[in-house]
Amino acid sequence: MTSDQIRQVILDILGRIAPDEDLTDLDDARPFREQMELDSMDFLDIVMELRKMYRIQIPEEDYSNLNTMGGTVQYLLPRLKDVPVGA
Amino acid sequence: MSDLDRIVITGVGLTAPNGNSLPEYRHNLLVAKSGVVNYKTRYMGPVLAGICNFDELRYQKKKDLRRGTRAGSIAVYCANEAVKDSGIDWPNVARENVGVYIGITEHGNVETENEIYEISKFEYDTKVWSHHHNPRTVANNSAGEVTLNMGITGPHLTLGAACAAGNAGFIQAVQMLRLKEVDLAIAGGVSESIHTFGIFASFAAQGALATHEDPTKACRPFDRNRNGIVVAEGGGLCTLERLPDALKRGAKIYAEVIGYAMNSDAKDFVLPDSNRQAECIYLAMKRAGIGPEDVDIVSSHATATEQGDIEEAAALRRVFGNSPKTFINNTKSFIGHAMGAAGALELLGNVPSFDDGIVHATINLDELDPRCALPNLVINQPREIGPVKCILNNSFGMLGINSVVIIRKFQG
Description:
The complex is a heterodimer. By secondary structure, chain A is an all-alpha fold. Chain A contains four helices and no strands. In chain A, helix 1 crosses helix 3. The longest helix of chain A is centred in the first third of the chain and has 15 residues. Chain B is of the alpha/beta class. Chain B folds into two domains: 242 residues, Thiolase/Chalcone synthase (Peroxisomal Thiolase, Chain A, domain 1); 149 residues, Thiolase/Chalcone synthase (Peroxisomal Thiolase, Chain A, domain 1, 3-Layer(aba) Sandwich), CATH 3.40.47. Chain B has a ten-stranded mixed sheet, with helices on both faces. In chain B, strands 2-3-7 form a three-stranded mixed sheet. In chain B, strands 12-13 form a two-stranded antiparallel ribbon. Chain B is globular, with a radius of gyration of 20 Å. At the A-B interface, helix 3 of A face helix 2 of B.
């Protein structure tokens, strides 16, 4: 997957776990939590969704990499580069 | 009794398979509109169920629905509706003095089954077991979701009381108000049980799950051709207050709770006992200071199982056999068995009788089982009986738990 494709995957996940939010103007550089209602349980949903979709295990010490969209994409890119979209 | 010990119902919120407000529900009970439909449950295929279609997003966001449970969502809807109906100045109510007491038959089966189904798609890898599982399945879930939604900081409890639970919620509220533990109670019962295949499968294994080619005719209490329970979801919650508080704010008063009782059969896991049921009814009447002849309507619990209906009929004959002005009906025949909500919904469906003097019927009673013969059983058509002053509501459950609540029309 490319960066853009990973970004779309994350957007889709956010759309499911925060269905009341408008994500169209999400700023990739700002923390998710500054732009939407996202608590620790929601954050764990992101991790869980990635685990279910791509069998990725994200260790707790790496969670800080997932605070922003930009950081999340950057973190996931090497881990998902060989994974086809929709896997 | 001091007026401070007199507890009144001042607001009603409900969702039943045939109505999402008291007026709609009552109307459909009087015109014999059933809420039972065909339903598919996981693994088992087609069954019958009573399904609610209330507006889930009236008081919750989509995210709340995703995170919480169906029982919680039903409870949130009913609690908000009850408070709105009560006319209380909710923004200025001291939330630390509000208690939430919700009866449940069971909780956690739905959520656990869903998680097991989910991990089955991942070779039972428990690493995909949801972190939402515990907050969804703790036994206080539905009452807790109400407090979260409404900012209530007083006590909240669910009361696990099998199918006697709806009454148990009301009883807990009366007790806590009399103890001055709270100033306002939101109480009753809820059920999400149609979302667990296990409850259907278990009733089927017991030979107690209703079948019928016409879903609306499947729930047939007291009928010779009854063949079991129709499982339903639903909720019925009320606001309850001490009488002086209600009078002070000029509240509309639906009814006064004048008596209640709970007891145990101490006999069998599933089979009921008419002797203990009758004792429970007598105890509630004694506490209310009334006799059988003072009861205008008995809302029966009968679920349309073979032995359950026979036992309750025996108890009712024993207590009300010589009470010619007491009329008996059954609400499950319209909506199925709403489990934890049953007692609450069945009581509330009768409350409008205080105003219109009409008793809704028990429907689908085409051929009375002689073992269930009862005096003044209101069969298939509602009956106008004149002024109604007192209603007695039976709710019984597995493990031999019995509950009775008696309400009286409030007369200042």
